[in-house]
Amino acid sequence: MEVLLRNLKIFLIGAFGYGLMETFFRGGTHWTMLVTGGVCFVILYYINSKNENAPLWKKCLVGALIITTIEFAVGCIVNLWLGWNVWDYSRYPFNIFGQICLAFTFLWFLLCIPLAYFTRFIHIRQNRI
């Protein structure tokens, strides 16, 4: 039960954190992005916790690839299959089916810099008890 509650807290931090960020930059968000942000943050939390001594650039590269992979899977479901049109990167160069693109993968890499420190902070606080 303790692990479930910890994962729920981490999920909610990621869900609402990403939702706020997207609302700030895009003027709104979609509920699927809250779920996606939460899932990504839980995965990043555990990867960064297990690899705390890895160089920052490696954490960011792995994080960007994870986020991009999840973004592609979610995009194929919500945009291509369900037709909800939550986002469309088709106007960006180096996109795949308009669901992911190199520019946003680079953006996720940059976002993973503060997230590496933030997940470390949360991990330390969780284990202090």
UniProtKB/TrEMBL annotation:
Pfam families: ABC_trans_CmpB. Keywords: Membrane, Transmembrane, Transmembrane helix. The keyword Transmembrane applies. InterPro entries: CmpB_TMEM229. The keyword Membrane applies. The chain crosses the membrane at residues 7-25, 31-48, 60-84, 96-118. This is ABC-transporter type IV. It comes from Sinanaerobacter chloroacetimidivorans. The lineage of its organism: Bacteria, Bacillati, Bacillota, Clostridia, Peptostreptococcales.
